[in-house]
Design goal:
By secondary structure, the chain is mostly beta strands. It is 3% helix and 44% strand. The strands form eight sheets. Strands 23, 26, 27, 29, 30, 31, 32 and 37 form an eight-stranded mixed beta sheet that branches. The longest helix is centred in the N-terminal third of the chain and has 8 residues, at 3-10. It is globular and about 75 Å long. 50% of the residues are buried.
Length: 551
């Protein structure tokens, strides 16, 4: 590793970054067309808005309990996207009780179906937390890639989800939302109420404007609020997540009544449940709709479809069915290929934007180093631990497509028996390849768990016993170290682990394992570092690099 290059990188402004190009999925065909999905990763419930110049598009998505939360992606053409920041550092800064609550993994809780809007020189994001209420954050200086204010609780209570504001021509602000049956014990209705003009508090009572109960429009949720040519429009999915469709509804009043039509459905295509997303009108006179498709273990990936308003309704895709390949949107200039970041050399003084912890961040979980590595310290498990479902310091990222290989070079440093660390594919089921200290040696273990959310104990299989590759030659709390290469290969939601001591010859571990999504999120891969010794000094992973390549 070139230390001069690392030191030079530490001196660069933090905003400097090259556009990342994926080796495993690129939707831009290079001939003026694109192929869906434009983001083949789990950006669930996406929403999009256009900036004041008309040439910058910003996307956010559900992040649930993972932090940093509310990812911000940027594009110049709606096809090439890169991660530029996050709107939430933790859940919820400014509220000590909730900060503590989310210091442990609250799977499936937190940020549900956000909406992003530009208004009066600032960007706003609204979301519903089903347990605590409606929240909003806005940019501190008008730059969505920069700093955001602490979140504001707009409406306190349970059951609120999938919120979206609309600032009307007269400056009044309205909010539409759905309802979580798991908390409110009713669902399939949308309500509209008025907010204060600054969007920080409710000043009106909710009105039910759409009811899908007892009809094909059951599970109507994820509404987005717009105004076009004097009509108020609500666009929302219905019919169920993997099997449903997209509705558009219109009224001359924000409070309805609304007439509605199905404007996007699977039809004869292979793209199931095409719904829940955001409409954008470009300065070039085109209309587009970004939405998700549920791909089970891979999560909910993002598709782009054209929108035709010639009938007075926003008919999406090709005559209401999603497209696979289509001409790219018009843009001011040719944007270079850009994809959400995946591989990481860990040479920057900040954590890569693709990474998220599984709960609110504590600096004892891990930090970047000046040595070209990412350090992840061992988390001390509770006395009655069963599996890794409770671990908050999992450092993970989304799967980038259906077939790919992940290879990492790391050193595991241990101060006490039982400390372990390695590579994991995490979901309701998980599998991990770790090294664990036993005496003066390390065991290479395959850890497997089915139904982790139900408290099922993990199973372990001994792969090899390894001598340390280095030992501290001091008397004061010496550590032993294992340098190792770990790999996982994914093929159609099956995972195969392997390992190497020299980075050239890899040995497979066991048989293929079936990936499983997490709670409302796709399976995620990354690092795990844990221990059971309450009193020992922590061990740690120093990850040198991680590279995502073709199968």
């Amino acid at each position: 590793m070139n230390k001069l290059l690392i030191l030079a990188s530490l001196m660069l402004p933090l905003s400097v970054s090259a556009q990342y190009q994926s080796q495993v999925w690129n939707p831009d065909n290079g001939d003026g067309t694109y192929t869906n999905p434009v983001i083949d990763a789990d950006y669930s419930d996406p929403d999009v808005c256009v900036g004041p110049s008309g040439d910058d598009y910003y996307l956010t998505a559900s992040s649930f309990q993972c932090v940093p939360g509310l990812p911000i992606l940027h594009s110049k053409d709606l096809v090439n996207w890169e991660i530029v920041g996050h709107a939430l550092k933790n859940l919820y800064t400014g509220d000590e009780a909730l900060l503590q609550h989310f210091s442990q993994p609250q799977h499936g809780a937190g940020v549900w179906a956000p909406s992003i809007r530009y208004h009066n020189g600032q960007y706003y994001i609204y979301w519903g937390d089903p347990d605590y209420g409606v929240y909003m954050v806005k940019t501190k200086y008008g730059d969505p890639a920069g700093e955001w204010d602490d979140p504001v609780c707009v409406i306190k209570g349970q059951g609120y989800i999938d919120t979206c504001p609309l600032w009307d021509d007269d400056g009044r602000c309205y909010l539409v939302n759905g309802w979580a049956n798991s908390r409110s014990k009713f669902a399939s209705v949308l309500t509209v109420r008025e907010l204060s003009a600054d969007g920080t508090r409710a000043i009106g009572q909710p009105v039910i404007v759409f009811d899908g109960n007892g009809t094909e429009n059951r599970t109507c949720e994820g509404p987005k609020f717009y105004k076009r040519d004097g009509w108020y429009w609500i666009m929302c999915p219905a019919g169920g997540v993997p099997t449903g469709f997209q509705l558009a509804m219109r009224s001359k009043s924000p409070y309805g009544p609304y007439e509605h039509k199905i404007v996007l459905a699977q039809g004869k295509t292979a793209i199931n449940g095409p719904h829940q997303g955001g409409w954008v009108h470009t300065k070039y006179g085109e209309d587009w709709f970004l939405h998700f498709q549920d791909k089970e273990a891979y999560g909910r990936v993002v598709h782009l479809n054209p929108v035709d308003w010639s009938s007075g309704w926003p008919v999406m895709g090709k005559k209401g069915e999603p497209v696979t390949t289509y001409k790219k949107p018009k843009a001011n200039s040719q944007q270079p290929t850009a994809n959400p970041q995946e591989s990481d050399e860990f040479n920057a003084p900040t954590i890569g934007l693709q990474w998220q912890w599984h709960a609110n961040y504590d600096e004892k979980y891990g930090v970047p180093t000046a040595f070209g590595t990412m350090r992840i310290y061992t988390y001390k498990l509770s006395k009655n631990w069963k599996n890794f479902w409770e671990v908050p310091n999992l450092l993970l990222q989304k799967t980038p497509t259906d077939r790919f290989t992940v290879t990492t070079k790391l050193r595991f440093t241990s101060k006490a028996d039982g400390q372990m660390g390695g590579l994991i594919m995490m979901g309701h089921n998980y599998q991990a390849l770790v090294v664990r200290r036993e005496g003066k040696a390390f065991q290479l273990l395959m850890l497997t768990c089915t139904n982790a959310d139900k408290g099922t104990p993990q199973e372990e299989t001994l792969i090899a016993t390894l001598k340390p590759t280095a030992e501290d030659q001091i008397d004061y709390k010496p550590g032993i170290h294992e340098d190792i290469y770990l790999r996982l290969a994914v093929n159609d939601s099956k995972v195969q682990f392997s390992w190497s001591q020299n980075g050239k010859k890899y040995q497979k571990c066991g048989s293929e394992y079936q990936m499983k999504e997490g709670k409302w999120i796709g399976a995620k891969f990354g690092y795990v570092a844990v221990e059971t010794n309450e009193k020992a000094d922590r061990g740690w992973i120093d990850a040198d690099w991680i590279r995502v390549t073709k199968q």
